[in-house]
Design goal:
- By secondary structure, the chain is of the alpha+beta class.
- It has a single domain, classed as 2-Layer Sandwich (Heat Shock Protein 90).
- Helices cover 58% and strands 17% of the residues.
- The chain has 6 helices and 5 strands, in the order H-E-H-H-E-E-H-H-E-E-H.
- The protein has a 5-stranded antiparallel beta sheet.
- The longest helix is centred in the N-terminal third of the chain and has 26 residues, at 7-32.
- The chain is extended and about 80 Å long.
- The protein starts with 6 loop residues before the first helix and ends with a helix.
Length: 195
């Protein structure tokens, strides 16, 4: 009978199940999440490049798409580094997350968020300007917008996230493999028919 079941007991059981689920989920997310803390200085760019290279190697991302990820993140870090020196921000935290649809590089920019967001808005409004009419930092932001699939600004977390969709990047390779398999199986069928 439902009327005899203790509501507190049900709530406790629900809480236990939820905690088990979230613990498993956190373990999965931690496996997919990486981070690096860099001094807010352009001399740290090489460490960022190594961080991105390891991730792209693990996810088998090569060629032009690897270049897009590397260039967009490097340019964003250089903008932050240039501004960070003015505002005396000693570190930049960079987090990597992945999902089945994409790769996400989040940079915590603390006191620099408003400046970065303002730059992003100016460039978004002036996308039709010729490159020569934009200032250097605006051209850099334009490059980030063109190289990444999306840019997310989080004012509460004072962070920016560069999004790179990965759902179709190996499509030509997949098509080539399918064609090779079809040829292979058609040859097998021909051999079977010849017997």
């Amino acid at each position: 009978m439902l009327c005899c079941i203790n509501k507190d007991y049900l709530l406790q059981k629900q809480k236990e199940v939820w905690e088990k689920y979230t613990t498993r989920l956190k373990m999965k997310v931690n496996h997919l999440t990486r981070q690096i803390r860099l001094k807010t200085s352009e001399t740290e760019t090489r460490k960022l490049e190594e961080f991105i290279e390891q991730i792209c190697d693990e996810y088998h991302i090569y060629d032009a798409y690897y270049g897009n990820i590397l260039a967009a993140n490097t340019i964003a870090f250089e903008i932050i580094s240039g501004s960070g020196e003015k505002y005396n921000e000693p570190f930049t935290d960079i987090y990597f997350n992945s999902s089945p649809t994409g790769l996400f590089f989040t940079m915590k920019i603390h006191g620099l968020f408003l400046e970065f967001a303002s730059l992003y808005e100016r460039v978004s409004k002036n996308m039709d300007k010729v490159g020569g009419e934009l200032r250097t930092e605006e051209r850099s932001m334009l490059m980030i917008k063109l190289l990444s699939d999306n840019i997310k600004l989080d004012p509460e977390g004072e962070s920016i996230t560069l999004v790179f969709n990965v759902t179709g990047i190996n499509e030509p390779l997949s098509i080539q493999r399918i064609e090779l398999l079809e040829k292979y199986y058609s040859k097998l069928l021909e051999k079977e028919k010849a017997r």
